[in-house]
Amino acid sequence: MGEVYVGVGFTQSATVVDVVTAIRAVAPEDNSIVGLATVTSKAASSVLIAVAEMLSTPIIAFGPEALAAVIVPSPSRRVEQVAGTPSVAEAAAILAADHGRLIVGKTSTDAVTVAVAGKVPPACTTMRNEMECE
């Protein structure tokens, strides 16, 4: 899967175990996760801070306006009413990956929603041979 950013949204009832379980279901290799992305209102949550420490990865936060500007495959009216943006997990993952490619779309449990995005590799500017970029 390579290096990925996991977008995370969760309810107030979510526990550290809930969040870690949801993340591992979509990105089972902890060492591939280079950032947990979410909306600013969730970034200081003790649950997310504990998860980030467990996975040894930073938390990247975006305001609801920035998240709302991202086109996602699975927007939610309920999330928009609660968070001020139609998407937290998918939009945050895409933005953290520098407008990268969504690898795993919105995946939800009762209390946690996650999505995974990876950076799009730069275009090849020079060919070493017919099959290999420099």
Polypeptide structure, described:
This protein is α/β, with parallel strands linked by helices and 134 residues long. The chain has one domain (4-133): Nucleotidyltransferase, domain 5 (2-Layer Sandwich). Helix content is 34%, strand content 28%. A hairpin with a 2-residue loop joins β6 and β7 (132-133). The radius of gyration is 15 Å and the shape is globular. The relative contact order is 0.23. The model has no long low-confidence stretch (mean pLDDT 90).
Whole-number mean pLDDT: 90
Terminal CA distance reads 21 Å
CATH class: Alpha Beta
The CATH architecture term is: 2-Layer Sandwich
Q: Could you tell me the number of beta strands?
A: 7
How are the elements arranged and paired?
Layout: E1 4-10, H1 16-26, E2 33-39, H2 40-43, H3 46-55, E3 59-62, H4 64-68, H5 77-83, H6 89-96, E4 101-108, E5 112-118, E6 127-129, E7 132-133
Parallel strand pairs: 1-2, 2-3
Antiparallel strand pairs: 1-5, 4-5, 6-7
Helix pairs in contact: 1-3
